[in-house]
Design goal:
Number of strands: 11
Shape: globular
Largest sheet: 7 strands, mixed
Radius of gyration: 26 Å
Strand content: 5-15%
């Protein structure tokens, strides 16, 4: 750990102590859970810790902070406690240190090292009522925080709520308006609740909407030499938040802080330059700028809807042109047993993948409509040709957000995704009996899926059926040479046989060339055993 990471762990231990004292259940979450499972600590380039808790636990937490914190050392920020606090989620803040970002540079109490504290609001089970609360909350989030805009894209309904809050403010004032909205959103329990919305209102990164079942049970995970609570269904939650390939190191390494210092207090640092500035003027200007950005973002979003509609028509024309040029039939090409046919499918849909998977389009769930028959073939190739389950999930999510009624053929295709997710979860939990049964069933149903073949290799190695595993590896490498999971499996076979020299050769290759964090973690553990 670097100095900032070490400092944050100590803050987390303080939170853990308070929560245990007051019987408050919390979870380390999001990127912190990802770090716990993939690295048994921080994601190496991360400088952030997130925790989450249910709404009832959160209110206990706020009261505990009032009793436990020495304001000369620690403060707790929350928009409903301090209306000047810029975010709607909370922060446990150490005022004896500095952690600056562009959003918070001039608020003394919240410029210290901190841990973000999110909490869950229950959502009703009825889809119409659920969407109503979601829209209201997203509008409330933009209205309540006076510093920055959470995300650009707004639906018509969300903007309608936001504008109604602004009109209400003119009649009864800002504080009464906030109270009225909060009465509709907070302290609500629903007998049919199956979903939470986190008070983060995020569109980028982990979604704010989470299945309630993720947080029904607790598992204590290793994190930098300590045990901290995470969701007992962490494999499913990580897949939900980060995609099927959550174990893979990303190309983009995210840093949160612009500047971090553990030896200078907020007061000493911020006062040095705030004496030259008018704090009230800055806050007023930021609020005005934020309101302009919300309106501007809505208009841009509406414009982009039209742009994406045109892009969809263009993408469809390009697919149809390729089909015509190749005189190809999609039903004929959707043949997982033929690498040549899958290669042709990939050529047909390569441009569509590039356009549809572009960040802004995918995040805002703008579907480039190429027709459902074409979309089926594109998904088929994504699963069998590219073996890219993460992208297949993203494609389906975007399509499903745009009035999609999948037929039985499509549901059968997508069942491969469900099978792979279930197997991966069982493997991560080391529930090998369940994994073995799931793999055996999947091998029969999806014999040409490379992902299922890799799972079959891995379970054979775990069960020490080395002869079968080696035959499967040899067959796999004929069509997919240089696969890191196969190399790891060969290293494990040598390791279990006591051939350390051969094992190290394969392990060195994986550590050097693979970006799979779980493979790295397992190799480090085997070498340390």
């Amino acid at each position: 750990m670097d100095a900032t990471q070490n400092y944050l762990v100590n803050l987390l231990l303080e939170i853990d102590t308070i929560c245990k004292k007051y019987d408050i259940q919390y979870f380390i979450d999001y990127g912190t859970t990802l770090g716990a499972i993939r690295h048994e600590g921080f994601i190496p380039w991360d400088d952030d810790i997130d925790i989450n808790m249910t709404e009832d636990n959160y209110y206990k937490w706020v009261e505990a902070c009032k009793k436990e914190l020495d304001p000369k050392k620690r403060v707790y920020g929350d928009n409903r406690v301090d209306r000047d606090f810029p975010g709607t989620f909370g922060r446990y803040i150490d005022v004896e240190s500095i952690r600056l970002s562009s959003n918070f540079a001039f608020w003394k109490p919240i410029c210290g090292q901190c841990i973000d504290v999110f909490y869950f609001l229950e959502l009703p089970g009825d889809p119409v009522e659920k969407q109503k609360i979601i829209d209201m909350y997203y509008a409330y989030d933009e209205y309540a925080n006076k510093s920055y805009r959470h995300f650009r894209y707004k639906t018509d309904k969300q903007m309608e709520y936001y504008n109604s809050y602004k009109k209400m403010e003119k009649r009864i004032g800002r504080e009464k308006t906030l109270k009225k909205i909060e009465e509709q959103l907070f302290h609500k329990h629903y007998d049919d609740c199956d979903t939470y919305i986190s008070v983060s209102a995020r569109k980028f990164g982990p979604t704010s909407i989470s299945p309630k079942k993720f947080y029904d049970d607790v598992y204590y995970a290793d994190f930098e030499g300590h045990k901290f609570p995470i969701s007992a269904r962490y494999a499913e939650s990580l897949t939900y938040y980060y995609g099927y390939d959550w174990n893979i190191y990303p190309a983009h390494q995210k840093h949160h802080s612009k500047m971090s210092h553990t030896g200078i207090s907020c007061e000493d640092y911020v006062s040095d330059y705030m004496r030259l500035l008018d704090e009230n003027q800055i806050k007023a200007e930021r609020l005005k700028a934020k309101e302009v950005l919300v309106e501007e973002g809505y208009r841009i979003g509406k414009h982009l809807d039209l742009v994406h509609e045109k892009l969809g028509k263009l993408a469809k024309l390009k697919v149809e042109k390729k089909l015509s040029e190749l005189n190809a039939d999609l039903d004929f090409l959707c043949d997982a047993s033929s690498p040549e046919k899958l290669k042709t499918l990939d050529e047909i849909f390569d441009d569509y993948y590039t356009k549809q998977m572009r960040g802004s389009i995918r995040y805002w769930e703008n579907y480039l409509d190429i027709g459902d028959d074409n979309f089926y073939a594109a998904m088929y190739n994504m699963l069998y040709g590219r073996n890219d389950i993460t992208s297949a999930i993203k494609l389906y999510k975007v399509r499903n957000a745009n009035n999609f009624n999948p037929d039985e053929k499509f549901k059968q295709l997508y069942s491969l995704v469900d099978a792979a997710c279930d197997i991966k979860a069982a493997m991560v939990y080391k529930d090998y009996d369940k994994a073995e049964a799931l793999i055996a069933d999947a091998v029969e149903k999806y014999p040409y899926s490379k992902e299922i073949q890799l799972f079959n290799i891995e379970i054979k190695v775990i069960r020490k059926d080395f002869d079968t595993a080696e035959k499967l590896i040899e067959a796999f490498l004929e069509t997919s040479p240089d696969n890191d999971r196969c190399k790891k499996a060969l290293g494990d076979i040598a390791f279990f046989k006591g051939d350390k020299e051969t094992a190290d050769k394969y392990y060195d290759d994986v550590m050097k060339n693979s970006n799979d964090g779980l493979l790295h973690l397992d190799i480090r553990k085997k070498r340390g055993a």
